[in-house]
Design a protein that fits this description.
Low-confidence stretches: 1-6, 11-37, 199-221, 226-243
Shape: elongated
Helix content: 10-25%
Radius of gyration: 30 Å
Strand order of the largest sheet: 9-24-23-26-27-21
Mean pLDDT: 82
CATH architecture of the largest domain: Sandwich
Structural class: alpha+beta
Number of domains: 4
Number of strands: 27
Largest sheet: 6 strands, mixed
CATH class of the largest domain: Mainly Beta
Strand content: 35-45%
CATH superfamily of the largest domain: Macroglobulin (MG2) domain
Distance between the termini: 96 Å
Number of helices: 4
Length: 492
């Protein structure tokens, strides 16, 4: 009887051990050895076009790189071309055409990066070539703990099968030795798997301490720029914050820039401590640079310049009036450079803007065919304030089809009081800020009817605010004025 049962027990034991080993190894292959394909979005203000690109990174070592091109905003006629090129070089093969498409209609092209290292995606509209930097990683070597799992598993399974063979069972010492080898091999494999997460965590650099008063990492709560020294002339330079890694921005327009005519605004980025061109910007919130251009008439343009060479960017603007324009560039440098806001200015010829009344504060106003109700409670300097806007359409129906833009449901840009007590884009005393709506998208992936922003106004005075959302692939901008009261003096 025992002789009959024993083979069955041994067979069952082998099946159980093999099943356990398979279950043990399955997560290893999927969780640690396979690298998920990276997807990156980037917004481009390319000439008269606004494009959103979704780039699927090629596998380690190079290969196919799908890019989805989505026209947004205005869609002028004509095609754009894309190519994967080495930095400073032209395309190795013929560029791929992304035909002109209606706003909101995506088109996919497939590029090829046939090697590791630095690459650029060249996007051309016939006049300007944007060059988006990417890096193709080399295949990573197999970690030592993975080899331990593989070798231990093979040793354990082979030794176990051999130990259960009838010819070996007749030699107890050999069977015992093989059984011990099986136990050792399986123990090595199990130990390697069990300790792998701890090993990975130990290899990951510790996160830097977080200042409780700072915005969350990634900037989804918002960014602010302090008051900076005055600038003059065209080009105009921002020589602020000249510490290590501070970016100095110089802006210049085309010859004879005049009100009412489009002009290309070129930006040169240099390191304030070394004077070298700054070419280590990383994509954050779907752009390399978020640029706010604020005119003397109080109008805001939130655009995203394209990189045309190392440290050089360009964007097309159309000033509505003559005068001095403030430029606020948000960017994020790789490594320890961190998030930065640099400012500069440029001058435009033509008649100066007439005196314009301040934008309304709280209440309802109609913007782009949509009713926007602004809720802005009495603001006090140094205290958190929540500014929200509720959108309604025809017949008072709530608007629930706001589209995500730059990774979130809404944006708030603001300019603080200058030396005269009112917002002035040409006055370096006017502080700049950028805040994001933190609400989650609805079941359909859209937002609305309300977006909200939390901000602590640094000092008393009048602030100009611009709330921006996207609907039907167009940006709706709601200007708002907020008068901030001074904080009460502390009682003795």
């Amino acid at each position: 009887m025992c002789a009959v049962i024993a083979p069955r027990v041994r067979a069952c034991a082998l099946v159980v051990l093999l099943a356990a080993l398979t279950a043990l190894l399955a997560p290893v292959a999927s969780a640690h050895e396979s690298t998920p394909v990276g997807v990156q979005r980037i917004e481009l203000s390319l000439g008269a076009r606004t494009l959103a690109l979704t780039i699927t990174a090629p596998p380690e070592g190079g290969g196919r790189m799908p890019v989805v091109v989505l026209p947004r905003g205005e869609a002028p006629p004509g095609d754009v071309t894309l190519a994967a090129v080495r930095p400073g070089e032209g395309p190795a093969t013929a560029p791929v055409v992304a035909p002109g498409a209606p706003v909101g209609q995506p088109h996919e092209v497939v590029l090829t990066a046939d090697g590791v290292g630095a690459w650029e995606i060249a996007v051309a509209d016939g006049a300007t070539v944007a060059r988006i930097p990417i890096t193709v990683a080399a295949p990573a070597p197999t970690p030592g703990w993975v080899w331990a799992v593989r070798i231990g598993a093979v040793l354990g399974v082979v030794a176990l099968i051999a130990a259960l063979a009838p010819s070996v069972r007749q030699r107890p010492r050999l069977a015992l030795a093989l059984g011990a080898a099986a136990i050792v091999g399986l123990t090595i494999a199990a130990t390697a798997v069990a300790t792998a997460p701890a090993t990975s965590a130990a290899a990951t650099p510790a996160a830097a301490p977080v200042d409780p008063a700072a915005a969350p990492a990634g900037g989804h709560a918002g960014h602010g720029g302090g008051a900076l020294p005055a600038t003059a002339g065209t080009p105009a330079s921002d020589m602020s914050a000249m510490g290590p890694g501070a970016v100095v921005v110089t802006a210049r327009t085309g010859p004879g820039a005049q009100a009412g005519a489009p002009t290309d605004l070129e930006l040169d980025l240099t390191d304030g401590s070394t004077g070298a061109a700054v070419d280590d910007l990383t994509i954050h919130d779907d752009a390399l640079i978020h640029l706010a251009v604020i005119g003397p008439d109080g109008r805001l343009a939130h655009v995203h310049p394209v990189r045309i060479a190392p440290g050089r960017y360009v964007v097309r603007v159309q000033p509505a009036t003559g005068g001095r324009y403030g430029v606020f560039a948000e960017m994020e440098r790789a490594g320890d450079g961190g998030h930065q806001v640099a400012r500069t200015a440029f001058d435009v010829g033509g008649p100066a803007a007439p005196a314009t009344p301040a934008a309304p504060g709280a209440g309802v106003r109609e913007v782009a065919g949509t009713d926007a109700e602004v809720i802005a409670p009495a603001a006090v300097a140094g205290r958190p304030t929540r500014v929200s806007v509720a959108f309604t359409g025809g017949g008072g129906a709530p608007v629930t089809d706001l589209q995500g833009w730059l990774g979130m449901g809404g944006h708030l840009m603001l300019l603080g009081p200058g030396l005269r007590g009112v917002p002035d884009p040409g006055d370096p005393a006017s502080a700049f800020g950028h805040v994001h709506d933190m609400g989650a998208a609805g079941p359909a992936g859209t937002y609305g009817p309300q977006v909200g922003f939390d901000y602590t106004f640094p000092r008393a005075g009048r602030y100009a605010l611009w709330v921006q959302v996207q609907r039907d692939w167009q940006i709706i901008t709601v200007p708002v004025t907020v008068d901030v009261a001074p904080a009460a003096a502390p009682t003795p």
